[in-house]
Amino acid sequence: MTIQEEILKKIKEYQKIIIHRHQSPDPDALGSQGGLAEILKASFPEKTILKAGGSVNDLGFLIHMDEVPKEEYEGALVIVTDTANAPRISGELYANGEKLIKIDHHPDDEPYGDLSWVNTGASSCSEIIYDFYDQFQSELTLTDEGARLLYAGIVGDTGRFMYPSTTPHTLQVASNLREYDFDAPLLNRQIAEMPLKVAKLSGYVLQNLEMDESGAARIVLPQSILLENDVLDSETSALIPLAGQIDNVVAWGLFVEQPEGNYRARLRSKGPVINTIAKKHNGGGHPLASGAKAVDLTEVDAMYQEIIEAVKEYN
To answer: Burial code of 1-38, b = ≥16 C-beta within 10 A, e = fewer?
Structure first.
């Protein structure tokens, strides 16, 4: 029996299924979570399907979470999408379910769950969820809303099909999803749009970009600048690609100071592997897109030096 068949078997066994995703969600986290929920609701209308997790920040146009109290987890199947390791799961109640399934596309460095389906060759977890539907079309139903969510996840995690993870299969899946009835141009605009206050902050980012001659770059956003512009850390994701738009930047990091004084790091690369750096600093992710944490500016400096070394070695 394949892992996909095992997962479908478990889904059929349980009357209540609660779906989680990772903290600080992006379109793929919400797209895979919500897309799977839509598929299961349409396919098994007699079952209770719930979406659990914390705030979706500025992605409310995509999805809204359900209120899931602790008692709902008794005898429930929990499925976690797009989450590499258990500490990143949004909503600690996930552990109160009877069985746990992991569906993901990140490197499986920290396995968890009773069943685990990890496909690192997929562009996104949303692509994996579509493949799950596609494999069992005779038993599963994909709705227009489900297609909208999965399409959003793929668009988000491929950078609008610009990233190397975009394969011919990815484009075929996106093409299939576009056959459904949803407003794709509107969805693309919603994903790309940013508040005016964040757009203004992009000027600060570009003016204060620090760049090494090798092609490594970093931007440090102190709390004072965030407060001055009334911008939350959760709203800074739109600033991550800015450095990569510069032709001779090869790899970079956006370091955002948190209210507690530590830093959230978003690392990106056009070639050098940077998830090995993230793993050294309480993080992880994909080879070219990862996240990490730094306790202070000293660790930020150390992480930046590691990016420089990675770029030099790559060059």
So the answer is: eeeeeebbebbeebebbbbbbbebbbbbbbbbbbbbbb
